[in-house]
């Protein structure tokens, strides 16, 4: 029996995850408007936090539950890659400066417990035990033990490398869409590129700074309360840190603004003065594909399965939604096969 | 007869103006606006970049079919505020502008001096200015002298949710400017704060964080709508005079010696 013929449109985070699930059992073609290394995609810019508890403050319970389930899926995905991808699940720490203690209190009241996982209130002393370099800096905080993160740049590279040695056909810098009808199934993972078929899609701008800070030894992601949006300091391997992210209702892809840079960098500095001598490696901006309810959507239109709207929950939810989309794609292929028989 | 609020000649049924920032999602924002029964939605253009880049989000606000009150949130200088006001007029096709000029980064207190200057320029350019100001009577009077028909003194610093920090000042402004439309803008956290402002005779309230940052913004929007209506009704009904001595509401007839302990 011939392998189903499948196309993936868009080779960002979702496109990569779907491709990894499908490449062995399908004849797979991947079309990407930009570069296959993915610099233009939201998932490349992101901090790649896996924070189902912290996100539960502002999203529905079912999304947090799926986010929790996705953490183990990430471990599985990464374990199947030949190249190493940094993955960590040592919890995260939520702290606030004195003037934002009201926000910290409110965060504590609204955080939801998911299954047996919950936020643990930590004292000044306990914060110092978890993160010795933050000893004495914050009076109170929350420790969220189930949370984690991964290195998205390593994942982008490793996933591409995994697929390159196979029969997958790659089409880079494609402006025009292929003829969709020649495939048994098409997975549309284009994010904002799919605005022509998902009119309600909008971009939510996020800006992120990457630093190299040899003087800083934080072990786990730190979330700092901020009046406008949560700011994360996410430690990656080799003393690299991702500071992010702003959240602005704009589709602007211009470079980072001075205001945003100052907000993010001053937040980092107030958490740890060792950031003063950090080298700024990169300042980048991306657009999170979002729908009006800020929830992901999967829909099926003929032989096209569309996954979109992951908003700020790309890494949190992507493996779950990729698995769902792939399951639907397989059904579409089976149906097509039955018709052809 | 319907109790309408007039903003520069536009009659409005609702006395609750609502902001469009900080909601968990645009869908919840839209639901909250409906639940608040607001006729006016404020919107900020400051960080969106160019007009086309914020268009999708602004369309969601336009879809509510409410009056849009653009604001100059985040501006620190007269030039910035004037330029942004001009951009707002172009994007939203309205002469209304909520003029916000920050003088202190820490508590986001309006800069009263720059506010007067920007107000003068914008009124000369045909804008209908709704200035966000402190609860200072003299500044309020000067804004009225410049031609403002509507003023928006703060209840407390933006986003603090502390309510009416200086009721004495706010009452004084209400009493001394009886012909000016007055809104309390900023600092409200609870429906009771909005109710108090309306009982005091303020014509309307404007708020954002108290609804958007509530655990359930839609339910909180409804609570604020009820509070504003209650406060307005109480103001129109004229409250009983406050007294220092207790006065029983039960008639004392049949108690001839009621003052025997006096």
Largest sheet of chain B: 8 strands, parallel
**What best-fitting shape of chain B do the alpha-carbon axes yield?**
globular
Mean pLDDT of chain B: 90
Oligomeric state of shown chains: heterodimer
Of all chain pairs, the largest interface belongs to: A-B, 23 and 21 residues
- By DSSP, the count of extended strands of chain B is 12
Instruction: Round the mean pLDDT of chain A to the nearest integer and report it.
Output: 93
Low-confidence sequence ranges of chain A: none
Structural class of chain A: alpha/beta
Order of helices and strands of chain B: EEEHEHEHEEEHEHEHEHEHH
| Residues in β-strands, percent of chain A | 15-25%
Sketch the topology of chain A as an H/E string, one letter per element. Answer: EHEHEHHEEHEHEEHEEEEEEHEEEH
The percentage helix of chain A is 25-40%
Overview of the structural elements:
The complex is a heterodimer of chains A (341) and B (262). Chain A is of the alpha/beta class. In chain A, 32% of the residues lie in helices and 25% in strands. In chain A, a hairpin with a 6-residue loop joins β12 and β13 (231-236). In chain A, α1 packs parallel to α7, α1 (13-22) crosses α9 (314-340) and α4 packs across α9. Chain A is elongated, with a radius of gyration of 20 Å. The model of chain A has no long low-confidence stretch (mean pLDDT 93). With 262 residues, chain B is of the alpha/beta class. The model of chain B has no long low-confidence stretch (mean pLDDT 90). Chain B has 9 helices and 12 strands. In chain B, strands 5-4-3-12-11-10-9-6 form an 8-stranded parallel β-sheet. Chain B has a two-stranded antiparallel sheet with strand order 1-2. In chain B, α3 packs across α4 and α7 (191-199) packs parallel to α9 (217-237). Chain B is globular.
């Amino acid at each position: 029996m011939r392998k189903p013929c499948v196309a993936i449109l868009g080779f960002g985070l979702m496109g990569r995850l779907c491709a990894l699930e499908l490449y062995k059992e399908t004849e797979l073609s991947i079309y990407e408007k930009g570069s296959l290394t993915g610099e233009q995609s939201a998932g490349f810019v992101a901090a790649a936090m896996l924070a189902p508890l912290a996100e539960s403050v502002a999203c529905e319970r079912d999304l947090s539950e799926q986010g929790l389930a996705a953490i183990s899926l990430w471990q599985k995905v990464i374990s199947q890659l030949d190249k190493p991808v940094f993955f960590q699940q040592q919890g995260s720490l939520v702290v606030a400066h004195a003037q934002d203690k009201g926000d910290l209190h409110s965060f504590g009241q609204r955080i939801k417990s998911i299954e047996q996982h919950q936020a643990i209130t930590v004292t000044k002393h306990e914060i110092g035990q978890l993160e010795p370099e933050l000893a004495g800096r914050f009076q109170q905080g929350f420790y969220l033990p189930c949370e984690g993160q991964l290195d998205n740049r390593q994942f982008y590279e490793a996933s591409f490398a995994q697929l390159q040695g196979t029969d997958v056909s790659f089409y880079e810098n494609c402006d025009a869409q292929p003829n969709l009808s020649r495939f048994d199934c098409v997975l549309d993972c284009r994010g904002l590129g799919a605005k022509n078929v998902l009119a309600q899609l909008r971009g939510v701008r996020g800006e992120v700074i990457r630093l190299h800070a040899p003087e800083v030894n934080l072990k786990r992601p730190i979330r700092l309360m901020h009046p406008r949006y949560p700011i994360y300091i996410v430690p990656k391997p080799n003393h690299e840190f991702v500071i992010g992210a702003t959240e602005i209702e704009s589709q602007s892809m211009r470079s980072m603004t001075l205001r945003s840079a100052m907000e993010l960098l001053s937040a980092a500095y107030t958490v740890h003065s060792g950031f003063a001598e950090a080298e700024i490696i990169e300042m980048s901006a991306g657009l999170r594909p979002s729908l009006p309810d800020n929830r992901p959507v999967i829909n099926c239109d003929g032989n096209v399965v569309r996954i979109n709207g992951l908003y700020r929950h790309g890494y949190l939810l992507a493996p779950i939604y990729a698995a769902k989309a792939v399951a639907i794609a397989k059904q579409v292929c089976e149906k097509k096969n039955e018709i052809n028989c | 007869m319907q109790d309408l609020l007039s903003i520069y000649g536009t009659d409005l049924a609702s006395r609750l103006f609502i902001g469009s920032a900080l909601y968990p999602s645009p869908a919840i924002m839209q639901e909250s606006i409906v639940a608040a029964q607001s006729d006016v939605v404020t919107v900020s253009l400051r960080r969106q970049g160019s007009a086309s880049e914020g268009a999708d989000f602004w369309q969601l606000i336009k879809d509510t079919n409410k009056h849009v009150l653009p604001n100059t949130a985040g501006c620190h200088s007269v030039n910035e505020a004037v330029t942004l006001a001009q951009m707002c007029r172009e994007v939203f096709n309205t002469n209304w502008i909520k003029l916000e000029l920050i003088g202190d980064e820490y508590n986001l207190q309006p800069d009263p001096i720059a506010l007067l200057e920007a107000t003068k320029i914008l009124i000369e350019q045909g804008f209908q200015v709704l200035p966000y100001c402190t609860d200072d009577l003299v500044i309020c009077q000067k804004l009225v002298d410049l031609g403002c028909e509507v003023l928006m003194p703060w209840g407390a610093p933006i986003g603090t949710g502390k309510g009416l920090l200086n009721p004495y000042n706010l009452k004084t402004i209400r009493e001394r400017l009886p012909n000016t439309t007055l809104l309390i803008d900023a600092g409200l956290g609870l429906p009771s704060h909005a109710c108090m402002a309306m009982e005091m005779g303020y014509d309307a309230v404007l708020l954002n964080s108290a609804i958007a940052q509530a655990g359930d913004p839609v339910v909180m929007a409804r609570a604020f709508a009820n509070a504003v209506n209650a406060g307005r009704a109480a103001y129109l009904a004229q409250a009983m005079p406050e007294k220092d001595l207790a006065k029983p509401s039960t008639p004392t007839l049949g108690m001839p010696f009621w003052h025997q302990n006096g």
